[in-house]
Amino acid sequence: MLRQLALPVTLFGERELDRRDRLRRHIAEHGGTVDAAVAAAGALLVVGGVVVGGGGGGAAGAGGGARAGAAGGASAGAAEPPPQAEVFYTEGPPELREARLAVARWSLPRAGARLRAAKRVRADAGGALARTRAARCCSEDAARRVAQACSEIADDRPVSGARFSADGAALATCGWGGQAAIWRVVAEPGEDDENDADRLLRTGGRGGAGAAAAAAAAAGAETTGLTRARGWQAHADRATDVAWWPGATGEAALAQAAEAAAEAAAAGAGGGAGAGAAASAAAAGGDAEMSAADGAGTLALATGGAEGAACLWSARGDLLRRLEGHSDRLARLGFHPSGRLLATASFDGCWRLWDPETGQCLLEQEGHSRAVYCVAMNHPDGSLACSVGLDAHARLWDLRTGRCVSVLRGHVAQALSADFCPDGYRLATGSGDHTARVWDLRAKGCAAVIPAHRALVSAVRWHPGAWPAAGGGGGSGGGGLGGHYLLTAGYDCVAKLWSGRDYGLLSTLGGHEGRIMAADLAPGGAGGGGGGAPARARHLVATAAYDRTVKLWRPEPEDEEDEDGVDEDGLDSGGMHI
């Protein structure tokens, strides 16, 4: 096509994607269609370095007369351009403006609280800096000791998605068999960021875990496991991803799942119409309205399918709503931290924003030249989203204005995953070029390139943490406790944990017999059991793979050391120099 339009076939340093973009821009500038662009160029054809006129110009050897005639015809035609058949963008409904205002009202106070917490850490107010460093040290030490705790068959076909609930009590999975499932996470509390930081500060960096703590960690490791609470057929085709609604807790979901299972068992083989009817409606492409009349309308999960639709589910397995609009299969999906928006990425080249309450599509966002594979919505402020696709680019979007604020270029193969760090200014992306990149959003550039795997990187996840809420409370009194390490998973059948400080390798999690499709980290934060909630185990890792299994990983008990917890190299049990 470039030859037919009399354009250079390639420019110095130009890649295939850049050449395609140049052709697209040229066509857009000359009528918007291929026929118009060819007509504007006079249907010239370059053969062996000789320009041959194809639009009535005869041979092109008479001093470029054919070129002049073609240029004159093009200028005459340009005087009266053809009427535009359709707009070049997708107009948003009036509800989109209200959604953007809601995101702004939700994000601005949290952004202020996060920045104030970061300033307190830098100023070392109340020992915040020492506490943050000690917590990071303990997290890295726990990451070095992560090992496999249990493994379960999750689907008849490869498992494509795995996500922890907001409280870490439950794990949701989905697979290519179209099934979705909720699992109870059985893990006694072990490593805890804030408690470990207090211990290090209290002992001056020389305190070991102690016999009681080591015994508790050993007992917790022995009782770690997954118990299937509820499963149902979510899609007739492959299920591509699963995401928890931010307002859903694992404990409530497990209670609803147990109730539904008890009702199905009581009804017998012929009476279980609830979840079965919902699953049949989803598989057949039917619709269902969100209803709380029977207590089954509480949103818990969203799943994406290869048929191009996303489904909203209760923890009982009841279909609440079916979101249709994409023209190709879905890839990844995710909720906004406020719970008011759902983002879906698709192979049709765009990503969409949905209102989970009404099921309305609020935005169809173009921008990528190829399929969009993932949309990260987990920025701690809720103000930014990041979309990555098969064009190898990552695009940052301001959800409050709808503008693309930055394009992050650097990967040389398709970008497949993205995740925001809890500190708010770092972003990790994984790609088919076998690397994970860490981007500094303040500098709008790449901060580190991690040669993570020997195959494509399918998932990246930051160590989660808890930052102060909009009111300024919460956290550890010294900022957030997240971003201490980075989890990557790849098609080389292993997952790895990397330091969030210098991006050095902490541990390699090997055990899967197939390529890892998804991975997640259990929510961390500033201590467990706050507000009457039960304490949860920290540093739990879940991986889902092509071998149809989902595996749970957690830190092993610390090795026996001398009484003061100091080894021969002058390092304490957490790796701190003393």
Quick tags:
23% helix, single chain, globular, 578 residues, 30 strands, alpha+beta, 9 helices, four-stranded antiparallel sheet, disordered C terminus
Question: What can you see in these coordinates?
Answer:
With 578 residues, this protein is an alpha+beta fold. 23% of the residues lie in helices and 30% in strands. It is built from nine helices and 30 strands. The protein has a four-stranded antiparallel sheet with strand order 3-30-29-28. A four-stranded antiparallel sheet has the order 4-5-6-7. A four-stranded antiparallel sheet has the order 8-9-10-11, covered by helices on one side. The longest helix is centred in the first third of the chain and has 30 residues, at 94-123. The protein starts with 15 loop residues before the first helix and ends in a 23-residue tail after the last strand. Mean pLDDT is 79; it is low at 43-78, 206-215, 271-295, 468-479, 525-533 and 562-578.
